[in-house]
Predict the structure.
Amino acid sequence: SRARPPLPADGFDLILSSETIYEADSTSRLWSLIQAQLHFPSGVALVAAKSYYFGVGGSVAAFRSLVEADGRFSCSTVRVIENGASNRREVLAVRWRSLALATGYKRQGGTVDGSIASIAECSELTSGPQGNGLGTSN
C-alpha cells in the first residue's frame, strides 16, 4: 500500500475532471469532492463530459442540478463540442458565487460549514474501493 500525500488544508485553486459524471453515483461523488476541495473564494473546477451518457444515466444536466441546488456555487458552460460524428460534449466551470452568498463558509479540519465530507473522507472519494479516481472501475 502506497502512502497518499495529504490534501491541502485550504483546497485547490483548480480541479480538472473529465468523463466522471457518467452515472448518478459518480456524479454525486465528484460533486462532494468539489464542494470540499475547491479553494474559497477563487477556485474553479472544470468538468468535461458528454451531455448525456446513454444506458448509464449520467448527464451534464444532472450535474448542473446538483451544483445549482447548492446556492453557494455557480455552474456555467464554457465550451460545447459538437462534431456531428459523436455525442455532444460540454466543459463546465464551477465557481463559488460570491462572499455574500457563501456566508458562513469556514474551512475547519477540512469541512465546509460542517455539512460535507472531511478531508479524510474526500481522500476516500478520490480513491474509492477500486482506486481509480472516483471509486469506479475503468
In short: Residues 106-138 have pLDDT under 50 and may be disordered. The helical segments are 24-37, 60-69, 119-127. The beta strands are 14-18, 44-50, 73-81, 89-96, 107-108, 111-112. The radius of gyration is 15 Å.
